[in-house]
Amino acid sequence: MERIKGLILTDGARIGIIGGGPAGSFFSIFASKLARDIGKALDFTIYERKTFANHGASGCNMCAGVISESLVQSLALEGINLPSSVVRWGIESYFFHTQNGSVQIKSSRLQQRGIATVFRGGGPAGSLEKDVQSFDGFLLQKAIDCGTQVKHVIVDEIRLDGGKPGLYSGGRILQDCDLLVGAFGVKASTSKMCEKLGTGYKIPPTIKATQSEIELGRDWVASRFGHSIHIFLLRIPGIKFISIIPKGDYITISALGKEPGVNHIKTFLDHPVMKKMLPSGFKIPERFCHCFPKINVGAARKPFANRLVFVGDAGSSRLYKDGIGSAYITSKAAAYTALLHGVGEEDFRGYYLPVCKTLNRDNLFGRFLFSANDFISIIPPVSRCYFKVIQLEQDGLQRNTPYGDVLWDMFTGSRFYKDIFVRALSPWLTMHLLSVMIASFFKKVFFPHTRK
Ligand SMILES: Cc1cc2nc3c(=O)[nH]c(=O)nc-3n(C[C@H](O)[C@H](O)[C@H](O)COP(=O)(O)OP(=O)(O)OC[C@H]3O[C@@H](n4cnc5c(N)ncnc54)[C@H](O)[C@@H]3O)c2cc1C
């Protein structure tokens, strides 16, 4: 594609958005609001194959459904307040469970239950809950309220022949685009279609995850899991970590690893640490709602071209955390670039790419932090000391809670990884942890019979 300068959206310009997940909805919300503010009349259409009304995987964008504290706040500032029909549960703390015990972490920063858990679709397969509103459906409605048209069709072909991208479905043209926004995530064959356009775009690397919805009843969920997300660092082969997210009658079990499967979930539910949290006599259901989505663990190559930009998971996303928050960041940056600067390759390179690069660079620090966390969790003496220090902090025996804050920020995704990295490597923290480990070692050697 030739490089053109001065491509701008003029009155009547048509913007086609493939994907009505968070990234597609955010893009059209921000771009249409900005267009109104600067007095431009633009035409937005989202093409989304799902309606987000069905139960189970067919109506859902398959994720753990944790809306980070920072995103809840950013949305509120945009005037988007999540209603109680969307929020399944408010979260106020995290529990970390290891072979050697559990520790609860709270953050003094968190406003009351400021993290929300949601279902992305109409709820788990087989669920009888009636008052569930999908998070993605809610955002899509916000886009419609801003004047965007939504068409529930699959875009199965894109052509670039006339200079403007053309979208097709079943051989019929849907529209020509003055700007095409790729907000199709990483789960779809659509990404391959875009790679073949020859603009240099390459989809981000992904790993497989597994998600399961287990029904335990609201009372059990409330009493055993509370308003907390539970992270399990249990050294189950093939599993990096497992999170449990309470959602009313259900818990969502989200596992990341090499090739997580249903058997990993069954092994986990049978693990003594987890068994304690299940009703006595609990039997793993024969059938339960589960899926194997892919999770973005890197950056797309060249997520833009003339009249073309890729946002959300199809562009750049934060490692393991806050993917929806990343969709918010990239969609907003792409919308502002398109409306305020132009839709040429050079415009996106100048104003959109730096935002993606910030996320991509930050993920390098995230990768280091998660590797360090893996290392700590797999070596029992180190893991024991680390969680002991955190426990002391949280019990209020120490004034500050730097270790707890590091874990909190890593797992909630509420701070940039670089910032967490700098704090985690502070000489004071490292020396303190080492001194606790050495003290614990000598205690074990010289006073083996004293209690821990
Ligand atoms: C196991 C797991 C757990 C996660 N947990 C969290 C979490 O707790 N919190 C968090 O913030 N993030 C989480 N994420 C990441 C989060 O799911 C993504 O970052 C987020 O969904 C990205 O939004 P998106 O709009 O870019 O893509 P998606 O949500 O994937 O939306 C893409 C949309 O495009 C549509 N589409 C694709 N191709 C076409 C086509 N050709 N025609 C029409 N429609 C099309 C799809 O139907 C879909 O609706 C998790 C991910 C995984 C895999």
TrEMBL record:
Q: Which domain of life is it from?
A: Bacteria
Chain ranges passing through the membrane: 420-442
SUPFAM superfamilies, alphabetically? Answer: FAD/NAD(P)-binding domain (SSF51905)
Q: What keywords sit in the KW lines?
A: Membrane, Transmembrane, Transmembrane helix
Q: Which InterPro entries match?
A: FAD/NAD-bd_sf (IPR036188), Geranylgeranyl_reductase (IPR050407)
Q: What is this protein called?
A: Hypothetical FAD oxidoreductase protein
